[in-house]
Amino acid sequence: MSRRKLIAGNWKMNKTAAEGVALIKEIKAQFTECGSSKCCANAPEILVCPPFTTLAAVLAEAQGCSCMKVGAQNVHWAEKGAFTGEISAAMLKEMGIEYVLTGHSERRQYFGETDESVNQRTKAALSAGLSVIICVGETETERNKQVTNAVLERQVRWGLSDITAEQMKNIVIAYEPVWAIGTGKTASDADAQAAHAFIRNLLKQMFSCPCVADNTRLLYGGSMNAANAAGLLAQADIDGGLIGGAALKAADFATIIRAAM
Ligand code: 13P
Q: What's the domain count of the chain?
């Protein structure tokens, strides 16, 4: 089994269109394999997820890097209708967006996202032909109470309910312990590996075809940076990273991409 690594930057609410274009230009300058055939052959898949208003400009600029894809940070579950402020999967697909994040802990924490709505958003995105990175992870309180695995199991089972083995080809799961996000505290390589192994094992139980557990990419997120990426990415069940702060610094993001090569 070989799972191509995926290095994804979640820009969160950072970067106007002009700033986003400048950042992509800088990433391309730092990661010179971008324009060459080496990019496709050796590099991980690279993904950047800017804010909605920055997507079009970044998409145009990213086309100069053959292994770079562009994703959105959220999507609504309905095809269309009276949902002020929301964006549908078809709108993203039409622009050329390939990925979307669902269930990020900031959406769960600040915007009332539930396991059920994460599942609905995920299914809508899949139906429109997008790939989805579903984010899961325990809070510090949950970790202290030693219920991490129960939380992960609930979030993964709910997030993936009604999703078929065939659809799982377009699903990535990101394990992002909430206490590690934006805090500079990273899970140790061993703790991160244990959580990823738990999720992979869960996929084995959930899907009769072992191909799902074997082929689904699992990403680590939470203060991943240029210094700790290599150790995390060397773990057997960690297939890439979902990076916040360090994805806004071209040199650091390029270093993390190289750590995955
Ligand atoms: P940081 O890398 O800033 O901790 O953010 C991680 C994250 O939330 C990515 O989705």
A: 1
Per the domain annotation, does 184 fall within a domain? yes
Buried b (16+ CB within 10 A) or exposed e, 105-133: bbbbeeeebebebbbbbbbbbbebebbbb
Kindly report, residue by residue over 170-191, the tens digit of the pLDDT: 999 999 999 999 999 999 999 9
Q: What confidence tens digit (pLDDT) does each residue in 71-87 have? A: 999 999 999 999 999 99
Any idea which of 35-49, 132-146, 167-181 has the lowest mean pLDDT?
35-49
Q: Is 259 part of a structural domain of the chain?
A: no
Q: Is 33 a catalytic residue?
A: no
| Tokens (6 digits) for 91 | 């709108």
Question: CA–CA separation, 257 vs 261, rounded Å?
Answer: 7
Ligand 1 atom with the smallest distance to the CA of 224 is 2
Query: What residues flank ligand 1, with Cβ below 6 Å?
Result: 10, 104, 176, 181-182, 221-224, 242-246
Pocket test for ligand 1, best of 109, 172, 181 (most atoms within 8 A of CB): 181
Catalytic residue list contains 176: yes
The mean per-residue pLDDT over the stretch 214-219 comes to 98
Atom of ligand 1 nearest to the CA of 223: 4
Ligand 1: centre distance to CA 191 (Å): 17
Name, in order, each residue with C-beta under 8 angstroms of 232's C-beta and a sequence gap of 6 or more: 186, 189, 192, 220, 224, 238, 241
162 Cα: distance to centroid of ligand 1 (angstroms):
28
**What CATH number corresponds to the domain at position 85?**
3.20.20.70
pLDDT band per the 50, 70, 90 thresholds, residue 7 = very high
